[in-house]
Amino acid sequence: MQISKWGNSLAIRLPKKLVEDTGLAEGDEVDIRALDAQTVVITRAGNPDDFLVKLRLLQKPAPKGFRWNRDEANKR
User: Is residue 72 one of the residues assigned to a domain?
Assistant: First the structure.
């Protein structure tokens, strides 16, 4: 993809295949978040799943050997 000048802004044209695969359409509102210099996450604004997507981005792997135990957690 190429970044182009559009008035005073910059724009990226989304390839047809990407638009079809994501179900995006003209006029959709999106949120764009850079995870690092090479990874960008695009989500539909107002999508009820946004919270889950953002939560998954924050997840870190559990320490080696970690096991979740509901009874132990309830004792705390």
Answer: no
Using 50, 70 and 90 to split pLDDT, how confident is the model at 65? confident
pTM over 0.90: no
How many helices and strands in the chain, by DSSP H and E?
A: 3, 4
Cβ(68)–Cβ(76) below 8 Å = no
- Number of domains the chain contains: 1
Identify whether 9 is part of a domain: yes
Q: Are 42 and 31 in contact (CB under 8 A)?
A: yes
For residue 23, the enclosing domain spans: 3-59
* Rounded Cα gap, residues 39 and 51, in angstroms: 19
